[in-house]
Amino acid sequence: MVFYEKKIIMNKAEIDRTIKRMAYEIVEKNYGVDGLVIIGIQNRGVPLANRIVSKIKEMESVDVPVGILDITLYRDDLNSAVDQPIVRETKIPFNIDQKKIVLVDDVLFTGRTIRAALDELIDFGRPKLIRLAVLIDRGNREFPIQPDFVGKVFPASSKELVCVELKEVDKNERVVLKEIKETGE
User: Fold this and answer.
1) Where are the domains of the chain?
2) Does domain 2-77+89-181 sit in CATH 3.40.47.10?
3) Which end of the chain is more exposed for a tag (fewer CB within 10 A), N or C?
4) What whole-number distance in Å separates Cα of residue 15 and Cα of residue 59?
5) Rounded CA separation 79/179 (Å)
6) DSSP character for 179?
7) How confident is the model at residue 183 (pLDDT cuts 50, 70, 90)?
């Protein structure tokens, strides 16, 4: 199976503008920043969470706590994984009890990653509420999970892949649609 680039969905300027808008929406919907914490899901949700926190600091002059969540060991396909899973860092250096959590990820697809993230977060405590922010909502849910803050809705078929590329991880800064091309093997 090979993927080829089909279309650029967002460029760097569009990503920057979208993150700024999402930061404003998060502050507005939470009536400020009291009790607010932002937690990014490994891998690309982490730089997105840091960027949102940076924008909130510019607006509110407040350092909102930011955490890192790795859902690898909470995945429902862990037993069926062919390769050894890569476990990354989970770092939540604050108590989440009664906090307003905004969970951040790059692409929302089936909802399975978010389900795993919710399971893991509950192991850390009892938040007041959990909201979801995603840069791209591509549809095709398998779980009844919907984002509260969306950068862009971009429906994609099951033969397409929506790839977020961020400078912190990929050296590029864009969102690209790729299509699966069967190799004929």
Assistant:
1) 2-77+89-181
2) no
3) C
4) 18
5) 27
6) E
7) low
